Amino acid sequence: MPIEINGFSPRRTQAGSDRRIRSLKGDSSRSAAAGGGAAGAGDQVTLTGTAARLHAIERELARVPVVDLERVRHVQDAIESGEYRVDPQRVADKMIELEAALDGV
């Protein structure tokens, strides 16, 4: 069941977002033809300093591998050689930490 907040229904908000996205992507002629409103040829987007820094961080993080392959190889070698030991107290502590963190979500 949709909730209306301050006179804006989700459907109206989504339609407005779609028009802005089309304008930002340079589809102003297509959105005008579809009745989405005409965007002027001089429209432009300016990012704040914070947004530009966040964009740079996002690009940098995209380059970082998700898995540390060297760490994986190290653990595999330790398991194969019989040197890998599990600390049950540390595992229990980490499980409790995770549960506490999920309670805050």
Short overview:
The protein has 105 residues and is mainly α. 62% of the residues lie in helices and 0% in strands.
Structure characterization notes:
- Helix content is about 60%, strand content about 0%.
- It is mainly α and about 100 residues long.
- It has two domains: about 1-35; about 65-105, no CATH class.
- The longest helix has 16 residues, at about 90-105.
- It is elongated.
- Mean pLDDT is about 75; it is low at about 25-35.
Q: How far is it from the N-terminal to the C-terminal residue, by CA?
A: 24 Å
Main β sheet profile: none
What structural class do you assign from the helix and strand content? mainly alpha
Shape: elongated
Order of helical and strand elements: HHHHH
Radius of gyration: 25 Å
**Number of distinct helices:** 5
Strand count: 0
Average pLDDT figure? 77
The helical percent reads 55-70%
Relative strand content: under 5%
As for the number of domains, it is 2
Low confidence ranges: 27-33
Map the helices and strands.
Elements: H1 10-24, H2 28-33, H3 49-63, H4 69-81, H5 88-103
Short descriptors:
105 residues, mainly alpha, 5 helices, elongated
